[in-house]
DNA sequence: AACACCTATGTTACACGTAACATTTTGTTG
DNA sequence: CAACAAAATGTTACGTGTAACATAGGTGTT
């Protein structure tokens, strides 16, 4: 393997010290124009690539943030990361990205890896963590933002929304549109799914209705949505609405309706969750709870970088709320 | 900020040297059981987190691979990364993940960042790179795998499939099912879309048929699929089949058929591309070209790690081919 | 001319895990 | 128990960008 060029190589070549070359990269205005020009040439010629290992060794900031998302194929998290990068790009921070597959054990491994790179802060998208994850983050002494949810035992700061309240509001809305036999469609029984179920159940009980749920432990998908609706229709006497734990299930269910000639929303009201683009391409458009994930990303990164820069946060918990898509699958 | 515990801290505490503690982590069997136990206690108590910065400074392997994917919300790449991690986990390599948003300029920045962490190898999912990207990778002297496609000017190694051949095969299959007036539906006119068009056209010419294309520069989506099929039917006298550049378009087109009472496949055969889950929720199920993305991930990582470990690769280019979903939208 | 001040560059020390080699301790065998 | 092998631990040096401080040379002011 070719040895990579170092600052020293460039400096030797020009008869100067590596300190000047280092300055050239980080604050060129402190280097004399003539020297700057010489260095520029030499850098171009040698193809120097910055090596951040030595900087990581000093106790200086790495200007890097670790981000752990649960899944790589979910628009929710891609929008979240977009939001984060809006801020990190502007502040010239880098992000180091990892994914956990919704598994706290995997998350632990990824947190360990990111910490080993001396990240200055961490954004986590889940609220369930192993004890070791919590201990490592504490020991690392860096600011942490948990986002998407409002955890019961926050590590540090939180930016998210109340999924139980959102679900409650959504189901109450369905009931208000004159649906009474609303079934909850759930997949991958994680914490957020449970929270939404709680909101759903509370809304049903408060309206004097009986909650009924069909669930699968599998990852949610369009085809799971079809299967779950089928199952709901097979299981329960009457079904005139479904509250889906996410838009994948909802779209799959609407597809099922199309195939089976079930009219939406007349025969069956459909409420999704997340407000993905795909819902708006359906006929009728899917009504869905919109989670402000880009805003969550922006706020999370903003908050984290401010704290890294020594500012005291105005608060430790930010609830960014929710809204609805302009859908027609409800009434 | 609390100073993180170092190996030295643990060693001091036990009256041994940090070298022994270092050994405890990397080859515990070389440490006496009694010492091992003592260290384990101290480590647990201090909450030590490994710091890889010093190791990155030596010329030793970082046991880390950089991966750049175009998008964080595409099942194709999530499956690819899954495949990669199958291997990296087994070989105790870490991956550093970045995404480029399909933009070579952004890819360049991400490549630079990953190289600054001294990754031992790089997996890229696109074949268009800036000159600087190529120069940096060359200078870094690490093995590189480009995956998904078979580029004309490979940087180093390639694991992918021939999209032109796949398209040719798919269209030939449509023709064999007695369709003659097949239209190509294209969106976001990137390289892969073009390659598929070439395959389509070749298949048509070879069968003595005339290729006909409708295209949009916009990002593909369900609604684009609907619009494009509408446009095709308006533009051409007879249409009895469509070859869609991806499943989004195909699903949109099939929905259009459902709305308009066009029978699939009797009136119109539909062929998709990628074999995503949603295609299987359609009625009839969408027939689609399946790209072996998990296998591509596995092969890419296997190859890269072998080369990192000093093995000479048996070949520099691996075409993993394609298959079809068990769909019913063809005949 | 003396002084303060600025700009450009240099000098020194440091961060900390690990490879390579050295030394000590323990175990084994004739 | 001497002699040697093996196991366990220690010693030394290294990599490379950067903070902090030092110095050289130049400019301007009184």
Give a description of the structure.
Two copies of one chain form a homodimer. The first copy, chain A, is α/β, with parallel strands linked by helices and 331 residues long. Chain A folds into three domains: 7-51, 434 Repressor (Amino-terminal Domain) (Orthogonal Bundle), CATH 1.10.260; 64-161 and 293-323, Response regulator (Rossmann fold, 3-Layer(aba) Sandwich), CATH 3.40.50.2300; 163-290, Response regulator (Rossmann fold), CATH 3.40.50.2300. Chain A contains 13 helices and twelve strands. The first copy, chain A, has helices at 7-14, 18-26, 33-46, 53-57, 75-90, 104-116, 131-140, 163-176, 191-206, 222-235, 247-260, 277-280, 293-308; strands at residues 64-69, 94-99, 121-124, 144-148, 157-160, 182-187, 212-216, 241-244, 269-274, 287-290, 317-319, 323-324. In chain A, the strands form two sheets. A six-stranded parallel sheet of chain A has the order 2-1-3-4-5-11, with helices on both faces. A six-stranded mixed sheet of chain A has the order 7-6-8-9-10-12, sandwiched between helices. In chain A, β8 (241-244), α11 and β9 (269-274) form a beta-alpha-beta unit. Chain A starts with 6 loop residues before the first helix and ends in a 7-residue tail after the last strand. The model of chain A has no long low-confidence stretch (mean pLDDT 94). The interface between A and B is large, with 61 and 58 residues. Chain A binds a DNA duplex (30 and 30 nucleotides) through α2 and α4.
